[in-house]
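Pinned message: reference record for 3-oxoacyl-ACP reductase
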Amino acid sequence: MSLPLAGLSAIVTGAGRGLGRAEALELARLGAAVVVNDYGQPGRDGTGGSSAAPAESVAEEIRAVGGRATAHLGDVADFETARALVDLAVREYGKLDVLVNNAGILRDRMVFSMSEDEWDAVIRVHLKGHFNTTRFAAEHWRMRAKASGAGPVYGRIVNTSSEAFLAGSAGQPNYAAAKGGIVGLTTSTASALAKYGVTANVICPRARTRMTEDVFQGAPPPQDGTVDPLSPEHVAPLVGYLASPAAAGVNGRLLVVHGGMVAVMERPRVAAKYDTAKDAFTYAELDETLTPYFAGRPRGETFASPEILTLRRG
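Predicted structure (tokens):
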């Protein structure tokens, strides 16, 4: 039986550990040749130097079972490094078909205590890193599509956002902002590249990784031999699906995924709407109209759907 990604090549950033590693292994299992990118920093805050070992270890795992993989050491938040990463995939495998953006760091702090560097570093790696690789992959696909007689090409982008963006994680204003920006980048990219045959989607994964080791302290892995519902391996199949020909009609979508559950999110809906018969509302009219409405809502509620906080395996 032919594999769904046979003959395709993929880049997975931040693939030396955790979610990125699981995604790279899954794409390879489905038949793709994979460029495994990682900067190899020991600290989840992006400090501690870099090492080629994590990326090379994952690439070797893929090669050991007969797959094709190339390791790449590099910081995708650097514009020229991202260009070189895409060039490497094209040089090694003839073309690029799939881009999975996963690289990121954490520098958590309450907004009133956060330093400029803590803000800039997280925005740089997550949001700029996603943009950089997307920019050069998009250029590659556009050039191929515009080649004489080429027509639409095969292109898939899977970006990584977070429920921190959806729910407003209090101690992560930098991370939440970056992840929200990634959603905007993805939907814009989806609209821009659709005519070339390229899709762009974004996932909000919930998984036990080095970056979330503090979040899930109260939910340790099961000790009875059952599968950990927070294992990254629960997320990887969705990435494989979105990278496949089967997902050609899925574009500009946001999906939440964790153990045994995938939720397709909608854009925010209008919860209430008020009109004035005049040219504009006055302050008094707004006070009379909106204050009772918000008084009837739970204190601290945001526009985010409350269901996102209670998704469970079903």
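Pinned by admin. Summary line: The beta strands are 9-12, 33-38, 69-73, 98-100, 155-160, 198-205, 254-258, 261-264.
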